[in-house]
Design brief:
Largest sheet: 7 strands, parallel
Number of strands: 13
CATH topology of the largest domain: Rossmann fold
CATH class of the largest domain: Alpha Beta
Number of domains: 2
Bound molecules: uridine-5'-diphosphate
Strand content: 5-15%
Mean pLDDT: 93
Shape: globular
CATH superfamily of the largest domain: Glycogen Phosphorylase B
Length: 452
């Protein structure tokens, strides 16, 4: 298949405006651009990606009805996705109609690829008789768990079980009730409405998944058996083509120089919140003393505004900086993939967002798992219990944190997890290489798009 032929084919990509969704969608853009497609990113003005970081793409900003009020937006993804879906539809439709008129000038729109939450984009594509494909940015296991929520609700099991229960969920082994992927901000009923929309019958003709057979073969096979449309598991997307940063916050690269000075595998990288979660003052205090008391070197990302009641690190406890001295480095936002690839990093304390989980495994870095909400809980269970490349941190208490860091960085147990993580890394590298499952799946996806 000639590259020339694809050059005149444009793909319109529609990310959901959160870091954990934007990253894989822009990585997908890079992967497909490297296969010869032209790429347009249709995005909300809120959390807009920086076009300068992606000179090969065209960008279409869409008025979203949210941009005026950042505070509210960050927290409630369910409510926000409703507002975005209501507000972006019209401008997206006008934009696509215009592109279709220009088709006579030699460029065709092959299809629209939208985040699973951006329903409006799928609707508009179908209205205009354009092929539509969904991108799922969570693990396949999360999809099972979320579909399972609807059954559990109908069977009354959600009602009868404490959301913190350690009991196994029927038919969702190995998940416990406390691993179920609920959000914190919306009511259960509102969340289930979205879940049934996301996983119900969709009009799209395929699903792209940022996961790999190397990690989730059996879940993917089951999903494919139940699916009416082809599934293309082509992840981890960040490994499939080198892509530019799509960070919404400026990365502080000085931490790489600090890492250069640390001994091999000695540092715990702490990014325990990702782009959305937050901490109370008490939790940040416990975290700070847990890290200090572990006496291990740490690189800690504290996102601006993520500690309640402060702009950044004003609420760190008195005496903490003196106690840690040069052993600690704190940044607002890190170049995470480079940090995880750095030889000084011996472990990653993570909230287990799916991108962070994939990035850690891709570098063979073992984890401390402390999920905050949603799919992070499912991912944490898989990392610690199924893949056995991480340990679970039950509570944000300084003694527990100290113990977890020392277990991971110093003890044999941590060494075994590192070995396990290295094996998983090799497995997913093999799936991304020529002849591997993600590589083959990507070729099939390209052929599929070419067949439209
Ligand atoms: N990230 C980053 N620098 C940081 C913290 C996070 O670049 O200091 C990136 C990380 O590499 C990942 C994304 O932000 O790609 C977070 O996505 P994830 O799915 O892990 O979590 P979410 O933010 O959606 O909870």
């Amino acid at each position: 298949m000639g590259k020339q032929k694809q050059q005149s084919r444009r793909l319109v990509l529609v990310p959901c405006p959160y870091q954990g969704h934007i990253n894989p969608m822009l990585q997908l853009g890079t992967v497909l651009h490297s296969r010869g497609f032209s790429i347009t990113i249709a995005h909300t003005i809120f959390n807009s990606p920086d076009p300068q970081n992606h000179p090969d793409f065209s960008f279409l900003p869409m008025p979203d009805g949210l941009s005026a009020d950042r505070g509210l937006i960050y927290v409630d993804l369910v409510a926000n996705s409703k507002v975005i879906n209501e507000n972006c539809k019209e401008s997206f439709q006008q934009f696509l109609e215009q592109l279709l008129q220009n088709e006579t000038r030699g460029e065709t729109i092959s299809c629209v690829i939208s985040d699973e939450l951006m329903f409006f984009a799928e609707d508009v594509a179908i209205n205009l008789k354009l092929p539509s494909i969904i991108l799922r940015t969570t693990s396949a296991a999360t999809s099972f768990a979320r579909s399972g929520l609807i059954r559990l609700k109908a069977e009354g099991l959600l009602h009868s079980h404490d959301s913190l229960s350690n009991e196994l969920v029927p038919e969702l082994n190995p998940l416990r009730f406390k691993d179920l992927p609920f959000t914190l901000t919306s009511s259960q009923d509102k969340f289930l409405v979205i879940v049934s929309k996301v996983y119900g019958n969709r009009a799209s003709s395929a699903i792209i998944w940022n996961t790999t057979n190397g990690l989730e073969q059996s879940a993917l096979e089951q999903i494919q058996q139940q699916s009416q449309v082809p599934i293309f598991a082509i992840g981890p997307l960040h490994m499939m083509a080198p892509s530019n940063s799509s960070s919404l916050i400026k990365e502080d690269r000085s931490c790489l120089t600090w890492l250069d000075k640390q001994p091999h595998r000695s540092v715990i990288y702490v990014s325990s919140l990702g782009s959305i979660a937050s901490l109370s003052e008490k939790e940040v205090t416990e975290t700070a003393w847990g890290l200090a008391n572990s006496k291990q070197a740490f690189l800690w990302v504290i996102r601006p505004g993520s500690v309640h009641g402060s702009d950044w690190i004003e609420l760190l406890p008195k005496g903490f900086h003196d106690a840690v001295g040069d052993k600690g480095c704190i940044v607002r936002w890190a170049p995470q993939k480079e940090v995880l690839a750095h030889p000084a990093v011996g472990g990653f304390w993570s909230h287990c967002g799916w991108n962070s989980t994939l990035e850690s495994i891709a570098e063979g870095v073992p984890m401390i798992c402390k999920p905050c909400f949603s799919d992070q809980r499912v991912n944490a269970r898989y990392v610690s219990y199924v893949w056995r490349v991480g340990l679970e941190l039950e509570e944000l208490k300084r003694e527990e944190i100290e113990r977890a860091v020392r277990r991971l960085i110093l003890h044999d147990e941590g060494k075994e997890m590192r070995e396990g993580a290295k094996e998983l890394k090799q497995k997913i590298e093999a799936s991304a290489r020529e002849g591997g499952s993600s590589y083959d799946s990507l070729n099939e996806l390209v052929n599929f798009i070419m067949s439209f």
